[in-house]
Amino acid sequence: LVLRGRLGQAADMYRQVWELDDSSAGYTDKYAHTQHASLLLMQGEVQQARQEIEDQLKSQGAYRDDPWQLANALTVLGDIDKASGNLAGARDDYQRAVETLKTTSFPIAWPQVSLAELAIAEGHPRAAEPLLRQAIAEFEKEHSAGEEIGGYAALGRSLLAQGKAAEAKDAIARASKLADLREFPVLALPLQILQARAAALEAKPGAAGNSILVASVRKLHSVIQQSHALGLYNTECEARLALGKIEMQLNPASARAQLT
After folding, report:
1. Does 27 have pLDDT greater than 80?
2. Which helix (H) or strand (E) holds 62?
3. Can you tell me the distance from the alpha carbon of 86 to that of 240, in angstroms, rounded to the nearest whole number?
4. What is the sign of the dihedral through the CA atoms of 256, 172, 192 and 237?
């Protein structure tokens, strides 16, 4: 449901799961709470997401004998800290998730992607690239298409930040070929943002280049409309930031309005 953009239905389902779980005796599965916190973050509800995940992490024995769920919760907490601007806290959360998984047979690829995306946010996209390529190779072995798409999207961001438009386009194309994403906007819309950014990065001065920029602007306006309609706050913000940067090349006055 989440990947299809049906966030309200997904939230209702998570609540039903934990209400049944909380009413039972003994060990409870915290997965629904963790996923609900992640959903809240997607909607831009940072403080609510933090409250939910921290309550679960503080509850006595919540993740007893379940390092996978603990690592999952720590990764979501890292996402929340990153969204709050606490990059040092996010790094600590992600690293704790990695160390937790190292005590198990579970792969560390998904918190590794989070560490790589944090490196991009810190201005170190080159350091992120090898981490992402390693994680993608692990996802390929696990035949995990959703996580592989996310890995390629993160790799695209790393490559764009390094000015490698052609390589970024290849990463985006690989992600797009993994599945039919027409019914999965949560995966498809970030890739559309990256496509627009990559095209704009390759645009040359002149009429032809301006046409490419205009097409990228149209694509991003469409992403913004769809994201807003679905309540995908973070994706909408990412699209607006990309739009502002591209419009700066076309119309600086309009771009400044978009970025404020």
Report:
1. no
2. none
3. 22
4. negative
Distances in Å between the Cα of 57 and the Cα atoms of 60, 69, 103 are 8, 10, 19
Q: How far apart are CA 73 and CA 211, in angstroms?
A: 45
Report the alpha-carbon distance of residue 27 to residue 8 in Å, rounded: 27
- The backbone torsions φ and ψ at residue 155, rounded to the nearest 5 degrees and listed phi first, read -65, -40
**In whole angstroms, what is the distance from residue 7 CA to residue 19 CA?**
18
pLDDT tens per residue across span 117-164: 999 999 999 999 999 999 999 999 988 889 999 999 999 999 999 999
Q: For residue 160, with 0-12 CB atoms within 10 Å meaning exposed, 13-18 middle and 19 or more buried, which class applies?
A: buried
Structure tokens at 214: 């205009």
Q: Is 155 helix (H, G, I), strand (E, B) or coil?
A: helix
Distances in Å between the alpha carbon of 123 and those of 3, 87, 117, 166, 197?
29, 12, 10, 20, 17
Length reported for the chain:
260
